[in-house]
Amino acid sequence: MKRFGVPRGMTLLEIMVSMIILAIVLVSIVTLMVVASGLSARINCEYTAANIAKSRVEDARGLIKTSGFTALTDAKFGETDTKLDQNGIPDENGLFRRSTTVTTNYSSNPRLTRVSVNTFYYVRGIKSKHLTTMTTYFVNM
User: Fold this and answer.
1) Of all helices (H) and strands (E), which one includes residue 62?
2) Residues of the chain where predicted confidence (pLDDT) is lower than 70
3) What is the reported pLDDT for 63?
4) Pairing between strand 126-127 and 132-139?
5) Coil, strand, or helix at residue 90?
6) In angstroms, rounded to a whole number, what is the distance separating the alpha carbons of residues 70 and 58?
7) What is the distance of C-alpha 121 from the center of its chain?
């Protein structure tokens, strides 16, 4: 005898449709997690590059305090493509690169010195497209 209004179970087609919907949702979530992880790593590298540049500017400030304003010259403090690790310590295998330029007599002013620090990093052997530049000016008072 047949009873009306009482469900007897799910058909194979309903189960297959629900499995396809579940698969689409899971693939979307995994894709989102992979993209978020890559973005997090990139942000971490950019943050580290900015800290390396900031540290170099602080080194310039310390050099002025210990050795005087005239000690800050491009010949003594400048550098080109120095390889560094994530802590800013020179390392031949480091992923970060730093260049420092010191411009004395900036804008024809003998009391003004400009220090510019550029940093970038390598990801999987490829140079990043983002260059972090930190520039500061020191005035000899």
Assistant:
1) helix 12-67
2) 1-7
3) 94
4) unpaired
5) strand
6) 16
7) 7
